[in-house]
Amino acid sequence: MMSLVLGATLNPGGIIAWVIIGLVAGWLAGVVMPGKGYGVIGDLILGLVGALIGGFVVGLLAPDASFGFWGSLVVAFIAACILVAILHAVTGRRRI
């Protein structure tokens, strides 16, 4: 369970659930966002970082909220998409 400073909680389950959420959210972000993905490991890291950043932002915007597996997946996916957009803006699109 990930409890944030202001009270919002992302609660998808154990560490296996977090890895699954990170993998799925990162993969979806790689598929949905234009350009090539960052590979399996890169997409997993983007999804996990997206879950952390998204959870923090949701904690600021919706204190005392609680999200289960699917809510955590949506938050991680949206944040991973934003991270991909930022990475594309900073580094430019890869031409491989």
What does this structure look like?
- InterPro entries: Transgly_assoc (IPR007341).
- It is a multi-pass membrane protein.
- Belongs to the UPF0410 family.
- The structure is a single chain.
- With about 100 residues, the chain is mainly alpha-helical.
- The protein has one domain (about 20-90).
- It contains three helices and three strands, in the order ββααβα.
- The protein has helices at about 15-30, 40-60, 70-90; strands at about 1-5, 10, 65.
- The chain has a three-stranded mixed beta sheet with strand order 1-2-3.
- β1 (about 1-5) and β2 (about 10) form a beta hairpin.
- α1 packs across α2 (about 40-60), α1 (about 15-30) crosses α3 and α2 (about 40-60) packs across α3.
- It is globular.
- Residues about 1-5 have low confidence and may be disordered.
β-sheet strand percentage: 5-15%
Strand order of the largest sheet: 1-2-3
Helical content (DSSP H or I, runs of 4+): 55-70%
How many DSSP E strands?
A: 3
Largest sheet report: 3 strands, mixed
Low-confidence spans: 1-7
How many helical stretches? 3
Mean pLDDT across all amino acids: 74
Question: Could you give a quick summary of the protein structure above?
Answer:
With 96 residues, the chain is mainly alpha-helical.
Task: From the structure above, extract its key features.
3 helices; mainly alpha; single chain; 96 residues; disordered N terminus; 6% strand; 3-stranded mixed beta sheet
What layout of secondary structure does this protein have?
Layout: E1 2-3, E2 9-10, H1 15-32, H2 39-61, E3 66-67, H3 69-91
Parallel strand pairs: 2-3
Antiparallel strand pairs: 1-2
Helix pairs in contact: 1-2, 1-3, 2-3
Pfam families: Transgly_assoc
GO cellular component, one term: plasma membrane
Membrane topology: Multi-pass membrane protein
